[in-house]
Amino acid sequence: MLRATLRITGAAAQAAVPSISPEAGRELPRTETDIRSEGDDAIITITATDTSAMRAAINSYLECIRIIEDIDNLTRVRS
């Protein structure tokens, strides 16, 4: 089994757990994902059976994080 841990810090971390939790609950083939808060950070732990499944899962979560950061940047500019 392969394991990767993504740590999200800053403003995006607070929005990440409630935003990404539904995605983590979705069944992705050959992967398991856990997301939790740890202090001010959000921690995403991905376990996969092979490198292809790991790559797909990491890409999916990184895209979600990028979207959260983009929304945060847009809302700060307009505030």
Features:
2 helices, alpha+beta, three-stranded antiparallel β-sheet, 79 residues, 54% helix
Describe this structure in words.
- There is one protein chain.
- With 79 residues, the protein is of the alpha+beta class.
- It is built from two helices and three strands; from the N terminus they run βαββα.
- Strands 1-3-2 form a three-stranded antiparallel β-sheet, covered by helices on one side.
- Helix 1 crosses helix 2.
- The radius of gyration is 13 Å and the shape is elongated.
- The model has no long low-confidence stretch (mean pLDDT 91).
* Strand order in the sheet with the most strands: 1-3-2
Helix-strand makeup class: alpha+beta
Tally the helices: 2
Distance between the termini: 45 Å
What's the main sheet like? Answer: 3 strands, antiparallel
- Inertia-based shape: elongated
As a percent range, the share of helical residues equals 40-55%
Taking pLDDT < 50 over at least 5 consecutive residues as the criterion, the unreliable ranges are: none
- Overall mean pLDDT stands at 91
List the secondary-structure elements in sequence, H or E. Answer: EHEEH
DSSP, total strands: 3
Q: Strand portion, in percent? A: 25-35%
Radius of gyration: 13 Å
Describe the SSE topology:
Blueprint: E1 2-8, H1 11-25, E2 31-38, E3 41-48, H2 51-78
Antiparallel strand pairs: 1-3, 2-3
